[in-house]
Design a protein that fits this description.
mainly beta; Methylamine Dehydrogenase, Chain H; Immunoglobulin-like; 4-stranded antiparallel beta sheet; 2% helix; 50% strand; disordered N terminus
Length: 430
């Protein structure tokens, strides 16, 4: 179930993202994840239908891979719409969510293509909306039929009847994993996994209530949430401990660092002291370029202080702990987008047979634009190529040698980086 953007947000985005007639519009980013892996800031998003992985390199946020899910049964590509980055046993994984399935990619070799290692799927029509890691051996999935507890083999071992049927994005897990926080309408609900009940409902004030919004809870059990008027700090029983009146903008995400709280309100990012919600800093993110509209927010600790990642409509913005720009990735335009295949897979050679040592021309199509391909001739992967903007390619192949027989029927197989593949038979003559 894809996340919801309300009419108010849409109107605001259009206001900030107005494009002159005749020009294309940048793809929008409004959510994602970030992590520090071996001292490297890694960012991921799935807002453009693809799993996109980025790394911070100096003053640049570089996109290092882009992957779409393969629907092998239908011989086509699907779309991802959410991602979670998790480090496990020294390896970095991206859990990419699509409809009834969560794909687990190993992305430890950051400059290489993601490797699909496992997936979780269901046959009972549950749409996944999110995933969180609990400790070393358990996960929580968030779906339209509730929250489920999984073991390290991604097998369901428990379930909780707690859901947001309008916007699964709004369900967040507390730091210790015990509590689930959900913003539905003008209410923040707190669910205790131990008692399996909603233990508190806190009233909030939103002008529109279908937007992406997240509350946070720290290790002390304090809850932090921003509505369209105030940012507030509550105890677990709902007592208000501190509040901050902001600019009456539509608030979205709240994220915590050791001593600070950051929240996004469309026009920018605000930094408050976690103890008393005293204003520490703020920045209008539109001033950093692009059509800024700060929505999804993540914070990652580093040796040089916090790194704040704002999914900022026309791009992804990386800020330091003083909310100064470190890097800004500008999203692709419609014309630059890598599309899914536009035709069925096919292969052909300029002849059906040839003598060993000769050269034949292989052509093919039905792959994604600019997808990396490996060509296997008689079982050996001896050539690599890249599809063009239409997902097609042409390559010259040297016919491999055969044994003493006069003829041998072999396969020519092409495998894409997405694992989509197609093969055709060929006869090698002595």
């Amino acid at each position: 179930m894809k996340k919801i953007i309300s009419l108010t947000l849409l109107a605001a985005v259009l206001l900030f993202a107005a494009v002159p007639i005749g020009k294309t519009k940048n793809k929008s980013y409004y959510s994602g994840d970030a992590i520090s892996y071996n001292g490297q800031l890694v960012v991921a998003s799935a807002n453009t239908d693809s799993l996109e992985i980025f790394k911070l390199n100096g003053a640049n946020l570089e996109r290092i891979s882009r992957t779409r899910p393969l629907e092998a049964r239908f011989n086509r590509y699907g779309s991802y719409y959410e991602v979670k980055l998790i480090e496990e046993n020294g390896q970095l994984y991206a859990y990419a969510i699509t409809d009834f399935k969560i794909d687990k990619y190993n992305i430890s070799a950051l400059d290489a293509s993601p490797i699909l290692e496992n997936n979780l799927s269901n046959t009972y029509w549950e749409w996944y909306g999110g995933l969180e890691k609990l400790g070393n051996n358990h996960y929580l999935t968030i779906g339209n039929k509730g929250v489920k507890l999984l073991n390290q083999d991604l097998q369901v071992i428990d379930s909780y009847d707690f859901k947001n049927t309008q916007n699964q994005y709004n369900i967040q897990v507390s730091a210790d994993g015990r509590y689930l926080l959900d913003i539905t309408g003008n209410t923040l609900r707190v669910f205790d996994r131990q008692s399996r009940t909603v233990i508190n409902e806190i009233s909030l004030n939103y002008n529109k209530n279908l937007e992406n919004r997240r509350a946070s809870m720290d290790a002390n059990g304090d809850i932090f949430v921003a509505d369209d008027v105030y940012t507030k700090k509550f105890s677990l029983d709902g007592t208000t401990k501190a509040s901050f009146r902001h600019l009456d903008q539509p608030a979205f995400d709240t994220v915590l660092s050791d001593s600070s709280l950051y929240f996004s309100n469309g026009v920018g990012v605000v930094k408050l002291a976690k103890s008393d919600l005293k204003l520490l800093d703020y920045k209008y993110t539109s001033s950093y370029g692009g059509n800024g509209w700060a929505m999804g927010l993540k914070v990652v600790s580093s040796d040089n202080g916090d790194r704040v990642i704002s999914f900022n409509n026309s791009g992804i913005l990386v800020l330091d702990q003083n909310l100064e720009k470190l890097a800004f990735f500008v999203g692709d335009t419609d014309e630059e987008e890598i599309s899914a295949p536009t035709e069925n897979l096919w292969l052909k050679t300029d002849s059906y047979s040839a003598k060993e040592g000769s050269t034949v021309k292989l052509s093919g199509g039905g792959f994604a634009a600019r997808e990396k391909l490996v060509i296997y001739f008689a079982g050996a992967g001896n050539q690599e190529t890249t599809a063009d903007n239409q997902g097609r390619f042409t390559s010259d192949l040297k016919v491999p040698p055969i044994s003493d027989s006069q003829k041998k029927l072999v396969d020519i197989k092409v495998v894409g980086s997405s694992k989509l593949s197609y093969s055709s038979s060929f006869t090698i003559e002595k």
